[in-house]
Amino acid sequence: MEIRSRSDRLPHLQEKMQEYIENGARLGFLIDPVDQQVFIYRPDSSIEHIAGLEGALSGEPVLPGFFLPLSLFKED
Predict the structure, then answer these.
(1) Could you give the C-alpha distances from 42 to 8, 12, 27, 72, 76, in angstroms and in order?
(2) Rounded to a whole number, what is the largest CA-CA distance in the chain?
(3) 2-73 in CATH: which number?
(4) Phi/psi of residue 67, each to 5°?
(5) What does the alpha-carbon distance between residue 67 and residue 61 come to, in Å, rounded to a whole number?
(6) Tell me, what's the pLDDT at 75?
(7) Coil, strand, or helix at residue 38?
(8) In whole angstroms, how large is the CA radius of gyration of the chain?
(9) Distance (Å, whole) CA 5 – CA 55
(10) What is the Cα 27 distance to its own chain's centre?
(11) Distances (CA, A) of 59 to 8, 41, 67, 72
């Protein structure tokens, strides 16, 4: 999981997430509170993009029981 800070460049984090997947990670979340979006990375799958920070992320089936409310990342 990567969480973008205001000083992070999004393309750099996206490259880093792709490297994690290429090196064997089975699931990756890139949470971008700055632009209120999420990218979900999985091997052999296109990157899933979620606009907005509504709902929650689920780690199923890789991380059974993992549940992360995206409202935690909304900036005031």
Answers:
(1) 22, 18, 5, 23, 30
(2) 36
(3) 3.90.1570.10
(4) -145, 120
(5) 12
(6) 76
(7) strand
(8) 12
(9) 21
(10) 9
(11) 25, 11, 7, 16
SS3 content of the chain, % helix, strand, coil (to 5): 20, 30, 50
- What integer pLDDT is reported at residue 76 of this predicted model? 65
Residue 70 has pLDDT above 70, yes or no: yes
User: pLDDT digit string (tens) for 29-67?
Assistant: 999 999 999 999 999 999 999 999 999 999 999 999 999
**pLDDT of res. 60:** 94
Of 1, 53, 8, whose CA–CA distance to 27 is shortest? 1
CA distance 9 to 75: 18
What was the pLDDT predicted at 51? 96
For residue 68, give both structure tokens.
């992360």
- C-alpha 26/C-alpha 47 separation (Å) is 13
pTM of the model: 0.93
